[in-house]
Every structure is written in C-alpha cells, then in structure tokens.
Design goal:
Arc Repressor Mutant, subunit A, mainly alpha, Tetracycline Repressor, domain 2, elongated, 2 domains, 204 residues
Length: 204
C-alpha cells in the first residue's frame, strides 16, 4: 500500500480541546476512506484490519473501537459510497437542462463523482465484496433506490411530453459490470466523457 492519504487528517495527539465525538467522527471517516482505498488498491483479497487501519493512519485498537470487525467496516464503507452515489444521482436529475436530459445528466453526475473518487467506484462495483456479510442486500437496495430515482424523474418529464419511460432494474444492475470494467482498465478519469454511452445503455 502507498503512504496513507489520510495521515494529513490526523488530529493532534495528547491533550487537546477537541470534543470526543469529533475525534471519533474523524477516525471513522478515515477508516471508511482507508477501507475504500484498500479495496481499490488490493481488492477483496487485500482486505484486512491491519491494511485498513494502516491506510486510515489509525491503530488497530482504534479500528475495533469503531467496528465490531472487518465486515462491519466494509458494509459501512459501502453504505457511505452508495449514499454519495445516490446524492449525485438526485443532483444530476435536478440539474438537467431539459426533461429529455434527465438520465444523461444523472449518469454524468455519478461518473464525475467516480472520476474524482475512484475508490468509491471500486467499493460500489467490486463483485468479490458480495461475500461480505450483509453487502449483497445493501447492493440490491442501492440498485432499487437508484432505479426509483431515475424512473421517477424521467417519467415526470416523459409525462409532460405525452410518453412513458420504464427503467429496467436489470439495466441498473448491469451498469455495475460496465463501471467495474472501466475502473479495472484504469479509465476513471475518462468516465465523465462516457456518460452518453452509459445513458444509452440505461435507456435502450
């Protein structure tokens, strides 16, 4: 693993006036980010408490103060990544320049997020993580919520134009493989430019 990208966010050691809740929140945030970085760099096989703690620049003792074990941390990391992706989806829908661009705008917003934070994309798409207890249901819920956001926004615009649009949940799930392949190929930075391609996959 490369040097921890979270070391610079460590709070001062020893006596300080930072509230305990703020300390815990900072450590938890770093652990979630560290977990995502390990997934991106080493995959499921590289996930250990030690690797995540090192990436987060915290001790193993601090890890266990935050999580009951590695599965808890991985699930919390996925929930954080999916919450960010859902927020990007909503933002993209809300900022569409015209009704016909709802899906492309939402897709572009999510791909911009992944291009900026590739580790989150790896957490969202690495199929090996399905072996982590509780993660498969979380992925299924994410797919349903994402499909619901897109379908609601698109059908509102479609109604204005006298047409109907139906988003297949299968298409939303299929995009996971498309995104995973792009990330494995090192194409994170190029993802926003591929938004029309993915929007077409969803809308075909």
């Amino acid at each position: 693993m490369p040097p921890s990208p979270f070391a610079e966010f460590q709070l001062p050691r020893g006596r300080h006036k930072i509230p305990p809740d703020q300390v815990r929140a900072n450590q938890r945030w770093r652990l979630l980010g560290g977990c995502a970085e390990v997934v991106a760099e080493a995959g499921y096989g590289g996930l250990t408490v030690g690797a995540v703690s090192e990436a987060a620049a915290v001790s193993k003792a601090t890890f266990y103060q935050q999580f009951g074990g590695l599965p808890d941390c991985v699930l919390a990391t996925y929930e954080m990544a999916s919450a960010n992706a859902l927020a990007a989806t909503r933002e993209g829908c809300d900022s569409a320049a015209e009704p016909a661009l709802v899906v492309p705008s939402a897709v572009g917003s999510v791909l911009a997020l992944v291009a900026e934070e590739p580790a989150l994309g790896h957490v969202l798409t690495d199929a090996a993580l399905d072996d982590v207890e509780g993660l498969f249901p979380a992925r299924d819920e994410f797919a349903h919520r994402c499909a619901s956001i897109l379908a609601t926004a698109e059908n509102e615009s479609a109604a204005e134009e006298g047409r109907h649009w139906r988003l297949s949940l299968h298409r939303v799930r299929a995009t996971k493989g498309w995104l995973s392949s792009s990330l494995r190929a090192g194409l994170a930075a190029a993802l926003p430019a591929r938004a029309p391609e993915l929007a077409q996959l969803l809308s075909a």
